[in-house]
Amino acid sequence: MIGMRAHALHGILVMECGRVVILAVRPCVDGGRYPVKRVVGDTLAIEVDAVADGHDKLRAVVRDRPADRAEWRETELVLGPDDTWRAVIDLPALGRHIYTCVAWVDAFASWRNGLDRKLAAGVDVTLDLLDGARLVERIAPEHAAAMRTGSIAAATSPELAAVMTARADRSGASRSAELTVLVERPLAACSAWYELFPRSTRGDGTHGTLRDAEARLPYVAELGFDIVYLPPIHPIGSAFRKGPDNAATAGANDPGSPWAIGNAGGGHTSVHPELGTLADFDHFVAAAHALNLDVALDIAFQASPDHPWVKDHPSWFVHRSDGSIQYAENPPKKYQDVYPFDFDSADRQGLWNALKGVFEFWCEHGVRVFRVDNPHTKPIPFWEWCLGELHARYPDTIFLAEAFTRPKLMYALAKSGFSQSYTYFTWRTTKLELEAYATDLAGVRDFFRPNFWPTTPDIFPEHLETGGRPAFVQRLVLAATMSPNYGIYGPSYELGEHARRRGVEELAHNEKYEVRAWNLDAPESLRHVIARINQIRRSHPALQRGELIVQPTDNELVMAFAKVAPGAHAVLVIVNLDPFHTHRAWVTLDLASLGLEPDQAFAVDDLLGGAHFTWRGARNFIELDPQQMPAHVFELKPHVRTEHDFEYFL
Amino acid sequence: MIGMRAHALHGILVMECGRVVILAVRPCVDGGRYPVKRVVGDTLAIEVDAVADGHDKLRAVVRDRPADRAEWRETELVLGPDDTWRAVIDLPALGRHIYTCVAWVDAFASWRNGLDRKLAAGVDVTLDLLDGARLVERIAPEHAAAMRTGSIAAATSPELAAVMTARADRSGASRSAELTVLVERPLAACSAWYELFPRSTRGDGTHGTLRDAEARLPYVAELGFDIVYLPPIHPIGSAFRKGPDNAATAGANDPGSPWAIGNAGGGHTSVHPELGTLADFDHFVAAAHALNLDVALDIAFQASPDHPWVKDHPSWFVHRSDGSIQYAENPPKKYQDVYPFDFDSADRQGLWNALKGVFEFWCEHGVRVFRVDNPHTKPIPFWEWCLGELHARYPDTIFLAEAFTRPKLMYALAKSGFSQSYTYFTWRTTKLELEAYATDLAGVRDFFRPNFWPTTPDIFPEHLETGGRPAFVQRLVLAATMSPNYGIYGPSYELGEHARRRGVEELAHNEKYEVRAWNLDAPESLRHVIARINQIRRSHPALQRGELIVQPTDNELVMAFAKVAPGAHAVLVIVNLDPFHTHRAWVTLDLASLGLEPDQAFAVDDLLGGAHFTWRGARNFIELDPQQMPAHVFELKPHVRTEHDFEYFL
Questions:
Q1: pLDDT tens per residue across span A136-186
Q2: Number of CB pairs, chain A paired with chain B, less than 8 A apart
Q3: Residues of A in contact with B14 (CB under 8 A)
Q4: What percentage of chain B's residues is helix, strand, coil (to nearest 5)?
Q5: Would the CB atoms of A127 and B321 count as touching at under 8 Å?
Q6: Which residues contact A345 (CB under 8 A, 6 or more apart)?
Q7: Which residues contact A60 (CB under 8 A, 6 or more apart)?
Q8: Cα separation of A302 and A260, whole Å?
Q9: How confident is the model at residue A541 (pLDDT cuts 50, 70, 90)?
Q10: Within its chain, how far is the Cα of A493 from the centroid?
Q11: Do residues A164 and A139 lie in contact, with contact meaning Cβ atoms separated by under 8 Å?
């Protein structure tokens, strides 16, 4: 914990305890138990609360180093109001990075302060110069000698101050605990995901292959996504295989769910023969990389009854009293096609290493992004160990937690190493809900990176069933602009698929159980809106990392928020949340938060719709027809528009 | 820190890590670095955030013990919303008390939960009973045997559940760090202090003695105070002695400041001969105790140049280059009558032990309350060590920090062992300031206990110079009702002394430098108001410990707040902050926080002025004439008044 300096303990007079008390170091997650998260290129703004008795001058530095190096870098902390010290350090390299604070009483500076005040008051300082000479004689003997002769110039010389600062006596220094920041690649903080089922990429309803999926990659790249995410690509078990729309029994030609992993042909490190070979996968990855797309694999730690590990490592599963293996249950529901692993197995070391080995296998095949299925049903200590090991060996790896569970469990997973997490965005629809959720997420941003998905193959929310194309655009814009990380499940989403299976929060003819044929060129496709949104995200730093600042409106169905980033134009997003009706609203901008002056005109350019306005002052009127475009994504430029600016839009 | 359970560390597969992750334990000061504070008879409401993967049932307990005993007591934590577990433990004894949380996956309860759900669904449970028999056979073999024959009754019997709960397998348990609560005597949390200079108790302007001061004790007790606090009672140095109102030189008969401690006759463990003998002091303490008054001594760790330690322990002071001892300075100001100690002395152990010995000496003479002068100019690690030692030996000792300094330094002292602290109340006068300060203090209540003083011998604020008697009553009521700990400097305060020394925030003819004669029976004395306020405090638990809840009013000069305590009537305090004019206001009560129903009439009895009303609903009107009484202190009784109630007031 903070303040782990040697201190005066009950009954023990610790002689070396420091006079400075370090009360807090920020950022800090759970007292340093878990790392803070940043990405390469970020700066880390460090704040330290430190006090000492009396009026002496203190000094404080932050020391930092990569976790795998011994040498510290040192940055001076600067004292601000309320005994808070601040410094900003850069984070140029991937991996775990350590930071700590050291603070001490600066005897020379304290003495200089007294001297300066006496000099200003015209008081005799002969004795003070002698006292000062004692302080400096070891480090600066020539200055000490001059001070003994009464030289004020020697005592106050900048060189003396510099050398006394550089060679400060830190023997009584206090030290904070060593804290960790996990530095990931920038994609961990800003990413657009596109999920697709490779077997549905042939387009004619027959089982597609990784080669077919590879042919889809230019489409995904054109839409402006960063990551193409594939559901499990492994052999699918046949025992208790599910039929269409989760039917209890499958027909002979039903392909089964990709999450029922493993058959005699292989398990988590094999490719389903109907999709192709490992070589086809390597080819797919290379093709994706050529298009600047990362490939994300789905890691689902569970086995079909046909998985090779069931025979080879029976101790990795729970055995019941009759010798049968425990299948997944949520009594009275049974999931006989899925065997969970026994993380407390007698061969725990073997199982844990094998699971880590699954990630390593795919890392060796060029994968650096993993979407982890239901991590909240596997022990958190497993993840902390496994992801820690993987981050150490492959520091550019990103892990997305598919944890739709309770908030604190989601946060515990994030603390334990997941780079990103699915969220409740999928079900947050009203302005109040969305704004409150943004506030919640701001409070955990040091360790929890949300990834907003309007739908997934598992979740199709009610508002999209009835809202039509306007609802799909609304949710797309909200996901892509509220959160730097977002994703869609395609082509279902861009084609506006919205027929739900009765009584279930899922699409009918669910692609989890069937091969689907998609007409990407259908006129109703949202592909152009999606491409535009992704282009806006890429060209606007405010949308890539920025904090969301709610801007009040007088209409409960019109939500407005701004995002800002240093050195970049602010972006103002205004969404009509009603898919059926045109809405008008007065938006009251928090001009200061947007870097705008109250009396200054500013240019407001709609990056989505193309309209352009000049606004002045906080209160502004907007009107949004959802049939046309239910949202504005405004770029704000704090200057009066010139003719040239107009030309740009004409 | 929280979560110091064995965990999966980078590169080390720790096999014994627990599945439950303990994310937070509350209350907790700086991650457990400092103790939480409570008093004997308090309960400690503990909240734990703990999660585990999956849907298994967890169990969690809080364990606690006195720091000096080995045996733990155990209390079940109960799961509430948002993965928060709660328990309340009592704190029956003085001293340091340890608490920690243990949480684990309850295999039997998890199994029972599945069984119950299957039974409810009418599913066959034969195999489940066999599985359950394996779980229980070691602890309850007879139940296991019955379950193997298919006995649902055996599986679901309450005795089995009880024995499995009592003898739970905790081998995989997770443990939080051990946290400390410092349990002090109730007086640490609720106390009314009365400061008096013993030498001014003769009444005729000649130097009084401890015997004269003893004669004043019944008066102090009648006023309803708990603690009589004496400025330093030690021999006063004559070197550089200050004259009246801090004059640079003293006349032959000037008594000097009691804070210039020590002369050839003795130092911090001696009694000033003009005050009497150590025996007189013992007599004074006994007389005070007989009146249920605690005696507080002023501990000022500094020496006059005549202090015996200057000769006997020269190494305890800073020596300058010319061999002179460093006196206190705030350049260019000099305080040549005061030598600070050198806490970094080569004989540090000797000095620190001697200073601790000062407290011990007076503890042995029956003193259990100390007001510590300027603790913020002595090293915080010294206080943490010294007060820790003293609390261990004399756990009923209370320390008030006279730390008028920056907030974080005041908080650091509180964390390091001070029971109470002086505050900024003395300078907070507007409603906005007072309410904001109450909010600040609520945020630190687990370790910082404020003590509100309207004036001290060192501080006489401007508003009392001009506000007359109404201002004195206002500030008295605010101090005594906003804060469970408060004090006045008397008889100056009750006599309304208000002539300030020019250019200084101090009273003229300051008692620090002069013997004063006070006429306690002066008609303008506030003694009866003070006695009434102290009586109200003693009879109303809400004022002794309760949290302050602001109640909005529509008048910036009328402040209203409530205090509540479990099982006691709420108290509503309304103060006209303007000493010159009558004010009226509508007060909008937060009825829920006061335990009142919106449509229920309630009795409102003014404990200070004697008026009585029946109110109904949130909005109520008040009028306060400061010349009469600038405040209401209402007791709220949530019932319709009966005739009997009226009689009580007639």
A1: 999 999 999 999 999 999 999 999 999 999 999 998 899 998 999 999 999
A2: 202
A3: 381, 385
A4: 30, 25, 45
A5: yes
A6: A315, A316, A317, A351
A7: A20, A48, A50, A76, A77, A79, A85, A101, A102, A103, A104
A8: 8
A9: very high
A10: 23
A11: yes
Nearest CB among B114, B348, B382 relative to A331 is that of B114
Which amino acid is present at B401? A
- With a pLDDT cut of 70, the percent of chain B lying above it is 96
Task: Identify the burial level of B311 via C-beta atoms within 10 angstroms of its C-beta, where 0-12 means exposed, 13-18 middle and 19 or more buried.
Answer: exposed
Instruction: Reduce the DSSP state of residue B8 to 3 states and report it.
Output: coil
**Three-state DSSP state, B29:** strand
Q: Give residue-wise pLDDT tens across range B251-300.
A: 999 999 999 999 999 999 999 999 999 999 999 999 999 999 999 999 99
Q: Which of A515, A620, A631 is nearest to A575 (CA)?
A: A631
Evaluate whether B267 touches B261 at the Cβ level (below 8 Å).
yes
Which of A96, A380, A393, A405 would you mutate first to test chain B, the one with the most B CBs within 10 A? A380
- The CA distance from A253 to A50, in Å, is 69
Beta strands of B343-385 (E only): which ranges?
A: 369-373
Close Cβ partners of B142 (under 8 Å, ≥ 6 residues apart): none
**What size, in residues, is chain A?**
650
pTM above 0.95, yes or no: no
Q: Are A418 and A388 in contact (CB under 8 A)?
A: no
- Phi and psi for B634 in degrees, rounded to 5? -90, 135
* B82 counts as catalytic: no
- The verdict on A3 touching B (C-beta cutoff 8 Å) is yes
Going by C-alpha positions, the residue among B512, B497, B457 that lies closest to residue B256 is: B512
Q: In degrees rounded to 5, what are phi and psi of residue B52?
A: -140, 165
Contacts with B, A 22-81, CB within 8 Å: 23-24, 30-33, 49, 51-55
Q: The tokens of A177 are what?
A: 């605990």
B171 touches chain A (CB under 8 A): no
Q: Which of B106, B280, B306, B402 is catalytic?
A: B402
Q: Which two tokens stand for residue A615?
A: 């606004």
Relative to beta strand B84-90, strand B78-79 is: antiparallel
**Count of CB atoms within 10 A of residue A502's CB?**
7
Type and span of the H or E element at B603: strand B601-606
CB contact under 8 A, A322 and B130: yes
Q: Are A392 and A360 in contact (CB under 8 A)?
A: no
Strand A631-637 versus strand A339-340 pairing type: unpaired
Candidate list B184, B373, B458, B511, residue with the active-site label? B373
Task: Please check whether residue B604 is in contact with residue B595, taking contact to mean a CB–CB distance below 8 angstroms.
Answer: no
> Is the Cβ pair A30, B9 closer than 8 Å?
no
Q: What is the dihedral of CA A7, A9, A12, A18, to 10 degrees?
A: 10
The residues of A that are catalytic are 373, 402
CB A303 within 8 A of CB A339: yes
Angle at B225 between CA B222 and CA B229, to 5 degrees: 120
Query: Half-sphere exposure of A413 toward its Cβ, with a 13 Å CA cutoff?
Result: 30
**Residues 120-149, chain B: which have Cβ within 8 Å of A?**
120-121, 123, 127, 130-131, 133-134
Element (H, E) at B413: helix B407-415
Does ipTM come in above 0.90?
yes
Say whether A17 and B381 touch across the interface (CB within 8 A): yes
Cα Rg of chain A, angstroms = 30
SS3 assignment, position A436 = helix
Whether the Cβ atoms of residue B353 and residue B361 lie closer than 8 Å to each other: no
Q: How far apart are CA A507 and CA A253, in angstroms?
A: 21
In whole angstroms, give the CA distance from residue A119 to residue B80: 65
Cα atoms in the Cβ-side hemisphere of radius 13 Å centred on B435: 19
Q: Is any Cβ of chain A less than 8 angstroms from the Cβ of B502?
A: no
Q: Which two tokens stand for residue A611?
A: 């309209």
- Tokens (6 digits) for A623: 């009107």
